[in-house]
Amino acid sequence: REQLKRLEALFTPADAVVLRRGDELTLRLHGLAFASSSARLEAGATALLERVGAALALYPNARVAVEGHTDSSGDSVANQRLSQQRAETVRDHLAAQAGNAASGMTAIGYGDTRPIASNEDAAGRRENRRIDLVITPPPGTLP
Q: Following DSSP, what letter does each residue of the chain receive, concatenated?
């Protein structure tokens, strides 16, 4: 429980939220922004990703999947490719920070196939454009 509290304390609600599903934690990065139609991180991303690195250090033996998601605007094939590129950008940035500790980190793009909000309005589309880090600690680690 203490570990989970330390994880949550690293982020403001505007930056990220921690979700728990069974034996997995999802770190949903709200504050991470990319240039439009690009996998290039916008200014300010480095500070947030440093805190993400600190969060991952709390779970040193965990598997981590970096998931990229888009809204449904535009072509689905292009959205899938963009989400994959963005996930890889985040994975590569975190791996550069952590060195070999992040060597098992994977990146996967889901494009527009896993929305968490409606794509009918700008607010929903903004929510759907996200990076999720799915952290799977070794069995018995989470209370």
A: -HHHHHHHHT--TTTEEEEEETTEEEEEESS--B-TTS-PBPTTHHHHHHHHHHHHHTSTT-EEEEEEE--SSS-HHHHHHHHHHHHHHHHHHHHHHHGGGGTT-EEEE-TTSS-SS-SSSHHHHHHHSEEEEEEEPPTT---
The pTM (predicted TM-score) of the whole model is 0.91
- pLDDT band of residue 28 (cuts 50, 70, 90) is very high
> Would the pLDDT of 142 be above 90?
no
55 near 7, Cβ under 8 Å?
Answer: yes
Cα separation, 128 vs 72, in Å, equals 8
Residues in the chain: 143
Give the count of beta carbons closer than 10 Å to the beta carbon of residue 107. 22
Which are the contacts of 102, defined by CB distance < 8 A and separation ≥ 6? 56, 64, 91, 94, 95
